[in-house]
Design goal:
There is one protein chain. This protein is of the alpha/beta class and 346 residues long. It has helices at 18-33, 55-65, 80-84, 92-101, 135-144, 164-171, 214-218, 301-317, 335-345; strands at residues 8-10, 38-40, 47-51, 74-76, 106-111, 126-130, 148-149, 181-184, 195-198, 205-208, 225-226, 257-261, 275-280, 294-297, 322-326. It has an eleven-stranded mixed β-sheet, with helices on both faces. A four-stranded parallel β-sheet has the order 12-15-13-14, with helices on one face. Bound molecules: threonylcarbamoyladenylate and magnesium ion (MG). Threonylcarbamoyladenylate (TXA) binds next to strand 5, strand 6 and strand 10. Residues 42, 44-45, 47, 71-74, 105, 107, 109, 121, 124, 126-128, 150-152, 193-194, 196, 207-208, 244-247 line the site of threonylcarbamoyladenylate.
Length: 346
Amino acid sequence: MTRASLPIYTVPTVDLSADQLAHILQPAAERLRAGGLVAIPTETVYGLGANALDSTAVARIFTTKGRPPQNPLIVHAANIQTLQNLVAAWPEHAQQLAENFWPGPLTLVLPKQPVVPSLISAGLDSVAIRIPAHPIARALIELADVPVAAPSANRYTHISPTTAQHVQNDLGAYLDPATDAILDAGPTTVGIESTIVSLLGPEPRILRPGMISRDDLRRVIPSTDYAAGISDLDAIDETTPKLSPGLSKKHYAPRAKVIILPDTRHFYAPENPRIGWICLDSIANAPHKNRPATVFLSTNPHTYAEAFYSALHQLDDLGCDSILVEAPPRTDAWHAIWDRLNRAAS
Ligand code: TXA
Ligand code: MG
């Protein structure tokens, strides 16, 4: 007997009425409500969603990902009210950041209410929350009518998925066709995980850099800074205490060995299909465009981030042993990309 195949619900890229969209999302919403796992598109990366108030469903997130239980999860909702019911405090800073960046790729860490299962918070007194900007994610969460716990939909330490195909390749074999599903709404647009900001102390502290940069946050709250250990653009020091538990250096690693090069003079190395390249799209690099296993990424950090994980997945899938990456600029706008590059190369 052949194993039933995992349902993949596809949202077409044409304009849909609210009713048409609800009709497409209904089966996925029902699976979420029934305690199943549903991989959902967000603007950052695909998440592996479960009803956040159902401890059994949340436990399956950990086993499906192979994720250690000391790594807490982010809870997603479609509106502020739902999230406010999960936290024990809503300080002025939370209000300011929510007003300026939600819905969007910003996660806030706040003291939690007892209603949040301790599995989600890995036993901590705090919970990470966000309202995603992706309209399909919000529509699904609204329809399911439950807060949705969702880490990135990849096996532990693997690269985060930016397409439904990435999810299927990495997690397909671990999901149960009887209860789970993947919702496909095309590639994500931000491309790397949300910025995580702790509001547990008097001033906002960035626990994980993302495409909402420190400069962006400082325009709203000038005292915002990186938490200790992620304060500069160099490698994250593995020995500093983990303010964001589970943020290990081993995260986001492709199979291939990643090496960051200061520039692409190294291009004159002999061609070798087992060596992949990620280069900045520039006139100087143009002559190399027809090389195998070479991906050109934009010199705009947002466009670069959108395609970065996809490039790593692509070169991994080609069977490259090494991926040589041309170093991008070292400015605040590139901080999150440097963070992921350093992790991938560690
Ligand atoms: O963009 C994103 O944030 C994606 C999409 C799906 O929303 N999600 C995501 O989840 O990246 P995940 O599980 O891969 O990363 C969640 C991060 C972990 O690094 C964890 O350490 C941190 O959130 N986190 C969760 N709860 C926390 C807490 N109470 N205190 C500090 N850090 C927390
Ligand atoms: Mg992750």
